[in-house]
Design brief:
The protein is an alpha/beta fold. It has 6 helices and 7 strands. The longest helix has 30 residues.
Amino acid sequence: MSVYRLQQGRVPLLISLPHVGTEIPPEIAQRLVPRALISEDSDWHLERLYRPLAEALGASLIVPRYSRYVIDLNRPPDDQPLYPGAAGGTGLVPTRFFTDDPLYIDGAEPDAAAVAVRREAYWQPYHQALVAELQRLRAQHGHALLFDGHSIRSELPWLFDGELPALNLGTADGASCAPVITQRLGEVLAGQQRFSQVVNGRFKGGYITRHYGRPHDGIHAVQLEMCQRCYMDEAQDPRTAYDEAGAAQVAPLIEQMLKELLACRP
């Protein structure tokens, strides 16, 4: 079976949700501590939130099958840090939870050869599909737009101090897209008061946003890191914590952002 699912759309927008996968192959699962098997650090229920928006707008949507504990699709293949010098953080093949607890049974951590196997089996196919879809959209429309969607718990002391703003827009400090895109999406966020927000704050965009956002080549990328309190009950088991009422509040704002992105003529 494929390691990802791609739904091709009719407009120049691709929505990527690289951390929604929850499956863990048995040969990897047997090396993990029991707590890891529910993949608690996945972007839980994010596909449930985004898929109706993608279908309504005619956008392409790509999602992985496997958990970020298998490999992190939003990290560079050479495993260079996204935020050099920052405290905490996880690499291409994470070995710790977001709470800084070990993911693996003592002595069962993957070596360099195992990481290389996972990179070829899981990371490479997703990125090959992502590149091909962006190229298809650019060829068809003259430009391509990439919206990289993420979610995270509101407080994770190992990764950042205090509580994150609810919505965190990242454009690599403006380098991953045309200036008008950063401006107009920032205006959408600033124009509402229900959700706290920031542009290019703690999260400026991961590998996908930074690597594929090439405005001079007609590909414009943004990342939205959303706190899970917007659409989940963070105190509950993440597998069953979807909050219908919260999702109904934040989905129209995300839809507005996506429509504004499509309306831009970079």
